[in-house]
Amino acid sequence: MMRSIRELFLFLLLGIFSKAISMKPPHSRSSSDSQESFSYCLSWRLAVEANNVRAWRTVPTQCLRYIETYMTGGQYDRDVELIAEQILLYATEITVSDDGLDAWILDVDDTCISNILYYREKRYGCDPYDSSGFKAWALTGGCPAIPAMLVLFNKLVESGFKIILVTGRDEATFGEVTRDNLRDQGFIGYDRLIMRSESDRGKSAVAYKSEIRKQLMEEDYRIWGNVGDQWSDLQGECVGNRTFKIPNPMYFVP
C-alpha cells in the first residue's frame, strides 16, 4: 500500500515538473517572438538587397521597428560608409585621363540625398507609395545629404572624374528645386544633372537610365562606376565598368 502511494506521489511530481519545463513565462515567449520577427526581417532585408525579392510594394508591417532601427540606429550609415570606402579603393586604381571623359554616374534620391524624413512619416515604407505626398516633400528641397556619399562625391571630383547625376525626377517639376537642394547640401562640381524630359514619361527606370548611359558612351565618356540605391539604377545597357548598390529597404523602383 505504501509503495503504491509513493509511486503515485512520484508520478505526480514528474508530471508537475515536466509541465513546468514545457511552459515558458510570458516574457520568454515575447522574447522568442521578438527574436523570430527580427530574424525574419533581417532575412527579408538581405533578400531585398540581393534582388531576390522583387516588385514588392511595401515593407512587411511586422518589420516596421526593424527597418526604423536599421535606418536610424547607425547600421545603415555604417553600411554606406563601407560601400563608399570600397568605391574609393577601386577609384584609386584608375588613372584619370586629361581628356575629361572619365566618368562616374550617381543616382540622386537616397544615393546622394536622403528621403528618410519623408519615409519616417510613411512608416519607413510600410505605407503604400504616395506620389502626391512625395512630390510635395521633394518640392520643399529638404533632402539632407547622405554623409558618406557627400565625402565620396567630393573625393571623386577632386580626383578629376566627371560626375554625372542621373535621376528619375522630371525636369519640368523638380529641376530647379533639385539643383538648389544638391547645392545647399554640398554637391557642387558635378559635370551635369540629367533628369527626365517629357519624352521620357512612362519609361521604366531601367529603360530610361539605359538610354542615358548609352548616349553618354556615344559621347565617348568612359563610365568607370555606376552607383544607385535601386537595382533599376544598375541594370540594363551600358551599366559601366563596375556597379555599386547603396542599401535601401524602404521602397522598390522597377
Sum this structure up briefly.
This protein has 254 residues and is α/β, with parallel strands linked by helices. It contains ten helices and five strands; from the N terminus they run H-H-H-H-E-H-H-H-E-H-E-H-E-H-E.
What does this protein structure show overall?
- This protein has 254 residues and is α/β, with parallel strands linked by helices.
- The protein has ten helices and five strands; from the N terminus they run ααααβαααβαβαβαβ.
- It has a five-stranded parallel sheet, sandwiched between helices.
- α10 links the parallel β4 (222-228) and β5.
- The radius of gyration is 26 Å and the shape is globular.
- The chain starts with a helix and ends in a 9-residue tail after the last strand.
- The model has no long low-confidence stretch (mean pLDDT 92).
Low-confidence stretches: none
Which strand order do you get reading across the main beta sheet?
3-2-1-4-5
Largest sheet: 5 strands, parallel
Oligomeric status? single chain
Radius of gyration: 26 Å
The coarse overall form would be globular
Q: Could you tell me how far the N terminus lies from the C terminus, measured between alpha carbons in angstroms?
A: 79 Å
How many extended strands? 5
User: How confident overall, as mean pLDDT?
Assistant: 92
Structural class: alpha/beta
Helical amount among residues, as a percent range?
Answer: 40-55%
The amount of beta strand, in percent, is 5-15%
